[in-house]
Structure formats: structure tokens, C-alpha cells
Amino acid sequence: MRIDLHTHSTASDGTDTPAELVRNAAAAGLDVIALTDHDTTRGYAEATAALPAGLTLVTGAELSCRVDGIGMHVLAYLFDPEEPELARERELVRDDRVPRARGMVAKLQELGVPVTWEQVARIAGDGSVGRPHVAEAMVELGVVDTVSDAFVPDWLADGGRAYVGKHELDPFDAIRLVKAAGGVTVFAHPLALKRGQVVPETVIAELASAGLDGIEVDHTDHDAPTRARLRSLAAELGLLTTGSSDYHGSRKAVRLGECTTDPEIYGEITRRATGAFPVPGAGGTGR
């Protein structure tokens, strides 16, 4: 089985619609794909309706969190999307995205970058506007060559010159809320140093004690020594280890299935989940 547990659609900051995403996943030879848009479940219905035969959909979300001033993301899988407390927190994060993006546009303008809110809004479309949309506007203007090049201290990285904060969950609260909604939690790309400051291993240990289920080890932002260290840390803490593409469509040069999760780990995730269940494809035709 080929299993990719971290992807994004136009419901947040990917470039594939949810329907295109699942069709592209099937074409890429995947057996299981998780839809983990940022702080939203809006893509579920479209992805499910279009799900090809032979492909299983894991519903999820990537939750924006912050601990001790450091940003981090928690992947939440197979939770009940209607659970009110978790739904309310996701809504608070989403509602803060527009003023945050407007703030980054204003900072960029102060730095001499002629980006406009109208440009960013056009790029975001119906998705949850975020830093990647601002970064793509910078690419259009020729300020940076790629979206990744905008995520540096000079521009949009945490604490960068054009960075603006937003409402974010405490990760300990996120774990509690996801667990209460019957879901499973995995710390996304925990040692992606090129994205900025990372959470210390002591905090990862505290999160494990609080109920964190796993850490994302095989990710394109982790080199071989980093992956080895994370596997060792996971063994020490009794955490599951996952692998994923973190696919964003054409916004990033990462292919679906570039990193994958071991089938036994996937089986354990589904065994732990009680809020929702994987959806087997039935040859959907939704768009």
C-alpha cells in the first residue's frame, strides 16, 4: 500500500480542488490519501463525492498551533468534524486569517514590495487565505523565485520582517480537543529548520505525555540525519512515525506520494480513531 497522510487542496492553500486532488492521487498510484487542509474541513464533501474506486480517503486537518512563541502544526486525523468545541477553535483561526494576510500585505508594501490585497485575494480564491498566497503574489511580482523562498526571515518566516501573527491553538489544547472529538494527532514536520525556529525535543516529550500519537518523520523538509533522529526520539517516547508529501499542488515542487506512511502505522491510526472512519472510493464522479 502507498499511503500519503498530508495533502492540501483549494479549501486552504493548495492549487488542486478536492476533486482534482483525489483523482491525481489515484493517478499517482496511491492507495490512501489524507486531506489535511489548514484549520478547515470544507473540502471533505467534494473529495468524497469524487473519490475514485481503489483510493481510500482519510479526513483530517492541519491545526495551527503555537507554544512558547514557536509556531507548529498538528495533523488531526479522523475526528468528528461536528464536535462543537474543536469546530469553534477552527473557526477562530480561520476568521483571523484575512486580517492577518492584510497585515502582511501592509508590511510588504512598507518594505517596498508592490503587492496588493486584491492580488492576494485573487490567488486565494475560495481557500482559507494564508502565507502561501502572499508568497505566491511575491513570486508573481518577481520578488522571490519560489513560494519557499518567501518563507525566510527577510520576508514571511515566523518573526520575519513581514510576518504577522494570528490566533493559534495551544498544542496541548489541540491534542485534548482532537482526542475529545475521537481523532488522532501527529506533529507535522517537527524539525523543519528551514521554516524557522522549531519546538525543542523537551516539549515534544511533554506533548507525548499529553497524548500526542505521533510525529511526521519522512517529509521533504527533513534530511536523512534529521529523520534518523526523529525515529530515535519516537522510539524513546512511544510515538508513531508517519511519512507524507505535504502536497500543495503546483504551489510547491513536491509530488503526491513523495514520502509515505508504513501500512502498519496507518492501521494503528485507524484503530485509535473513533470520531470518523476512512472512506473507501466507489468510483465517484463529483467535481
Looking at this protein, list some descriptive labels.
single chain; eight-stranded mixed sheet; 287 residues; 36% helix; alpha/beta; 8 strands; 10 helices
Topology:
Blueprint: E1 3-7, H1 18-27, E2 32-35, H2 44-49, E3 56-67, E4 70-77, H3 84-95, H4 97-110, H5 117-124, H6 131-140, H7 171-180, E5 184-187, H8 201-209, E6 214-218, H9 224-237, E7 240-243, H10 263-272, E8 279-280
Parallel strand pairs: 1-2, 2-3, 5-6, 6-7
Antiparallel strand pairs: 3-4, 3-8, 4-5
Helix pairs in contact: 5-6
Choose one word for the global shape: globular
Helical coverage, percent range: 25-40%
Instruction: Tell me the Rg in angstroms.
Output: 18 Å
Report on the biggest sheet: 8 strands, mixed
Number of strand elements: 8
- Mean pLDDT over the full residue set: 95
Tell me the structural class. alpha/beta
Instruction: Figure out the total of helices.
Output: 10
Report, as a whole number of angstroms, the end-to-end distance: 26 Å
Strand coverage percent? 15-25%
- Encode the helix/strand succession as letters: EHEHEEHHHHHEHEHEHE
Low-confidence stretches: none
